Amino acid sequence: MAGPLRTPLLLLAALALTLALAVAVSPGTSRRNAKSSLVGGALDADVNEEGVQQALNFALSEYNKASNDAYHSRAIRVVRARKQVVAGMNYFLEVEIGRTTCTKSQPNLDSCPFHDQPHLMRKTLCSFQIHTVPWLGETSLVKSSCQDA
Protein backbone atom coordinates (compact mmCIF):
# COMPACT_ATOMS: atom_id res chain seq x y z
CA MET A 1 0.00 0.00 0.00
CA ALA A 2 2.90 2.37 0.64
CA GLY A 3 4.28 1.66 -2.84
CA PRO A 4 1.50 3.33 -4.89
CA LEU A 5 1.72 6.55 -2.83
CA ARG A 6 5.50 6.74 -2.86
CA THR A 7 5.85 7.33 -6.64
CA PRO A 8 3.49 10.35 -6.88
CA LEU A 9 5.03 11.89 -3.77
CA LEU A 10 8.55 11.49 -5.18
CA LEU A 11 7.45 13.04 -8.48
CA LEU A 12 5.82 15.94 -6.65
CA ALA A 13 8.94 16.52 -4.55
CA ALA A 14 11.12 16.42 -7.68
CA LEU A 15 8.85 18.94 -9.42
CA ALA A 16 8.94 21.29 -6.42
CA LEU A 17 12.74 21.06 -6.25
CA THR A 18 13.05 21.74 -9.99
CA LEU A 19 10.82 24.81 -9.76
CA ALA A 20 12.70 26.14 -6.73
CA LEU A 21 16.04 25.72 -8.51
CA ALA A 22 14.73 27.33 -11.70
CA VAL A 23 13.62 30.42 -9.78
CA ALA A 24 16.86 30.56 -7.78
CA VAL A 25 19.15 30.50 -10.83
CA SER A 26 17.08 32.66 -13.18
CA PRO A 27 19.10 35.70 -14.28
CA GLY A 28 17.92 38.97 -12.75
CA THR A 29 15.68 37.28 -10.21
CA SER A 30 15.74 38.57 -6.67
CA ARG A 31 13.33 38.35 -3.79
CA ARG A 32 12.14 41.87 -4.51
CA ASN A 33 11.51 41.14 -8.21
CA ALA A 34 9.77 37.87 -7.36
CA LYS A 35 7.44 39.66 -4.93
CA SER A 36 6.58 42.46 -7.34
CA SER A 37 5.79 40.07 -10.17
CA LEU A 38 3.29 38.01 -8.19
CA VAL A 39 -0.11 37.70 -9.79
CA GLY A 40 -2.19 40.57 -8.46
CA GLY A 41 0.88 42.41 -7.16
CA ALA A 42 1.47 46.09 -7.88
CA LEU A 43 4.03 46.75 -10.62
CA ASP A 44 5.82 49.91 -11.75
CA ALA A 45 3.99 51.52 -14.65
CA ASP A 46 5.10 53.79 -17.49
CA VAL A 47 3.98 57.34 -16.73
CA ASN A 48 3.14 57.87 -20.41
CA GLU A 49 0.86 54.83 -20.59
CA GLU A 50 -2.70 55.78 -21.52
CA GLY A 51 -4.28 54.20 -18.42
CA VAL A 52 -1.84 56.00 -16.11
CA GLN A 53 -2.54 59.34 -17.82
CA GLN A 54 -6.31 58.82 -17.54
CA ALA A 55 -5.97 57.93 -13.85
CA LEU A 56 -3.76 60.99 -13.29
CA ASN A 57 -6.24 63.31 -15.01
CA PHE A 58 -9.10 61.86 -12.96
CA ALA A 59 -7.17 62.22 -9.68
CA LEU A 60 -6.23 65.84 -10.47
CA SER A 61 -9.81 66.66 -11.42
CA GLU A 62 -11.04 65.25 -8.09
CA TYR A 63 -8.25 67.08 -6.24
CA ASN A 64 -9.25 70.41 -7.81
CA LYS A 65 -12.95 69.82 -7.08
CA ALA A 66 -12.22 69.14 -3.41
CA SER A 67 -9.76 72.03 -3.02
CA ASN A 68 -10.90 75.36 -1.58
CA ASP A 69 -8.14 77.13 -3.50
CA ALA A 70 -9.25 79.79 -6.00
CA TYR A 71 -6.63 78.48 -8.46
CA HIS A 72 -6.39 75.21 -10.35
CA SER A 73 -3.49 72.90 -9.62
CA ARG A 74 -1.84 70.53 -12.07
CA ALA A 75 0.94 67.96 -12.07
CA ILE A 76 4.51 69.21 -12.05
CA ARG A 77 5.80 65.64 -12.30
CA VAL A 78 4.81 62.08 -11.52
CA VAL A 79 7.26 60.79 -8.93
CA ARG A 80 6.09 57.17 -9.16
CA ALA A 81 3.35 55.24 -10.93
CA ARG A 82 2.31 51.68 -10.16
CA LYS A 83 -0.58 49.54 -11.31
CA GLN A 84 -2.27 46.43 -10.00
CA VAL A 85 -4.67 44.12 -11.81
CA VAL A 86 -7.71 43.46 -9.63
CA ALA A 87 -11.36 43.32 -10.70
CA GLY A 88 -10.36 46.21 -12.94
CA MET A 89 -7.14 48.15 -12.37
CA ASN A 90 -5.72 49.99 -9.39
CA TYR A 91 -3.31 52.83 -10.09
CA PHE A 92 -1.04 54.12 -7.32
CA LEU A 93 0.37 57.54 -8.17
CA GLU A 94 2.78 59.79 -6.30
CA VAL A 95 2.51 63.23 -7.85
CA GLU A 96 4.09 66.61 -7.25
CA ILE A 97 1.37 69.20 -7.82
CA GLY A 98 1.73 72.94 -8.35
CA ARG A 99 -0.68 75.89 -8.21
CA THR A 100 -1.35 77.48 -11.59
CA THR A 101 -2.29 81.03 -12.52
CA CYS A 102 -5.71 79.86 -13.79
CA THR A 103 -8.71 80.38 -11.58
CA LYS A 104 -11.30 77.65 -11.31
CA SER A 105 -13.60 79.57 -13.66
CA GLN A 106 -11.15 79.02 -16.54
CA PRO A 107 -11.80 75.81 -18.47
CA ASN A 108 -8.47 74.85 -20.11
CA LEU A 109 -6.02 73.76 -17.44
CA ASP A 110 -3.38 72.31 -19.82
CA SER A 111 -2.09 75.71 -20.92
CA CYS A 112 -2.04 77.26 -17.44
CA PRO A 113 1.44 78.26 -16.27
CA PHE A 114 2.51 77.71 -12.68
CA HIS A 115 2.66 80.68 -10.31
CA ASP A 116 6.18 82.06 -10.06
CA GLN A 117 5.54 84.72 -7.43
CA PRO A 118 6.78 83.37 -4.07
CA HIS A 119 3.65 84.34 -2.11
CA LEU A 120 1.39 82.54 -4.64
CA MET A 121 3.55 79.50 -5.37
CA ARG A 122 2.42 76.26 -3.79
CA LYS A 123 3.80 72.76 -4.27
CA THR A 124 2.14 69.70 -2.84
CA LEU A 125 3.14 66.03 -2.86
CA CYS A 126 0.12 63.75 -3.21
CA SER A 127 -0.46 60.01 -3.19
CA PHE A 128 -3.53 58.81 -5.07
CA GLN A 129 -5.12 55.39 -5.48
CA ILE A 130 -7.48 55.26 -8.43
CA HIS A 131 -9.61 52.22 -9.26
CA THR A 132 -10.90 51.76 -12.79
CA VAL A 133 -13.27 49.20 -14.27
CA PRO A 134 -12.93 49.99 -18.00
CA TRP A 135 -15.61 47.58 -19.23
CA LEU A 136 -18.15 49.33 -16.97
CA GLY A 137 -16.80 52.82 -17.59
CA GLU A 138 -16.21 53.32 -13.86
CA THR A 139 -13.39 55.28 -12.22
CA SER A 140 -13.13 56.17 -8.54
CA LEU A 141 -10.63 57.83 -6.25
CA VAL A 142 -10.10 55.28 -3.49
CA LYS A 143 -7.47 57.13 -1.43
CA SER A 144 -5.91 60.55 -1.52
CA SER A 145 -3.38 62.12 0.81
CA CYS A 146 -1.35 65.29 0.29
CA GLN A 147 1.27 67.30 2.12
CA ASP A 148 3.15 70.49 1.36
CA ALA A 149 6.32 69.80 -0.60
TrEMBL record:
Signal peptide range equals: 1-24
Q: Which domain of life is it from?
A: Eukaryota
- What does the UniProt keyword field contain? Disulfide bond, Protease inhibitor, Signal, Thiol protease inhibitor
CDD domains the UniProt entry points to: CY
Domain called Cystatin: residue spans: 37-147
Q: Where is it found, in Gene Ontology cellular component terms?
A: cytoplasm; extracellular space; vesicle
Q: Which GO terms describe its molecular function?
A: cysteine-type endopeptidase inhibitor activity
> Which family is annotated?
Belongs to the cystatin family.
| Official protein name in the record | Cystatin-C isoform X1
Source organism of this protein record:
Ursus maritimus (Polar bear)
